[in-house]
Amino acid sequence: MKAIVCNEFSELENLALSDVESPQAKAGQVVLNIEAAGVNFPDGLLVQGLYQMKPPTPFIPGSEVAGTVATLGEGVTHLKEGQRVVCFCMLGGFAEQVAVDARMVMPLPQEIASTEAAGLLTAHATAHHALRQRGNLAAGETLLVTGAAGGTGLAAIQIGKAIGANVIAVCSSDEKLAIAQENGADILINSSEVDVKSTLKSVTEGKGVDVAYDCVGGELFNACLSNMAWNGRLLVVGFASGDIPKVSVNLTLVKGCSVVGVFWGTFTQKQPKDFMLNMHELLQWYQEGKVKVVIDEIFELSATVNAINKLMSRKVKGKVIITP
Known about the structure:
Blueprint: E1 2-5, E2 16-19, E3 29-39, H1 41-47, E4 64-72, E5 84-88, E6 97-101, E7 105-107, H2 114-120, H3 122-134, E8 142-146, H4 151-163, E9 166-171, H5 174-182, E10 187-190, H6 196-203, E11 209-214, H7 218-226, E12 228-236, H8 249-255, E13 258-261, H9 264-270, H10 272-288, E14 295-300, H11 304-312, E15 319-323
Parallel strand pairs: 8-9, 8-11, 9-10, 11-12, 12-13, 14-15
Antiparallel strand pairs: 1-2, 3-4, 3-6, 3-15, 4-5, 5-7
Helix pairs in contact: 3-4, 3-10, 6-7, 9-10
């Protein structure tokens, strides 16, 4: 089968489209025919050796896929061959097939296209876990989202509105803010034109925000921390700016706020039942129209490097999808 292979940690351009052996389903596994795979910021970091996880090389990147069940391993009874499914596979997604733990595979309703389903997992499930389990966001609270036009940023806006929060979106351009507004953002802040720290103080009338969903880091993280409400929760989701900030812990003391890490991949492994409950709610919200996947562009498998480069350059509005 065809697959994108990372032979060693290096520049993205060194990823190779290769012929590799087709996977076989071991006990408790299924092999999927991949119809679509989502591209995420960690994919670009992973192949360069810059991510928290460093798998042994060579490996096939790609963590979220949608498609159909090809073969069942011993002991798998909740799925059947030919069934449409969506799956978090951690690795192996940028290929024509992947073998995965059957516990990570969920049936996919017919009305959800594979390209959209493949973009629903990581971005939306990360935001859902962050706001439900880590941020305990409640109706009536104020949610701040940085990088709000990216895949996970838009997901956080949608989920925040589904919960009943008032949402502030921070983006680097008016074009991106328009997309954030289309997805439910109530207050828009252009970080390229105004001082975010002082603007947040103004729009919240000095009260600050209850939950901040920060996937950018750098100075935006500091602006969030300076504007947390009493008992606020600052969620550390990622560092798209490339700048990992240092925490001024005195601010957590005087504001009575928490800085909370969000690592969805580990959550799926350590709390699989909670992960499945989250996905049940997400799929229900999708069918009710409360959340949706905004697709920026779809690339063929051979153009995976271009897909990842577009995402890493922060030019994406929504999700990038690869179709084998």
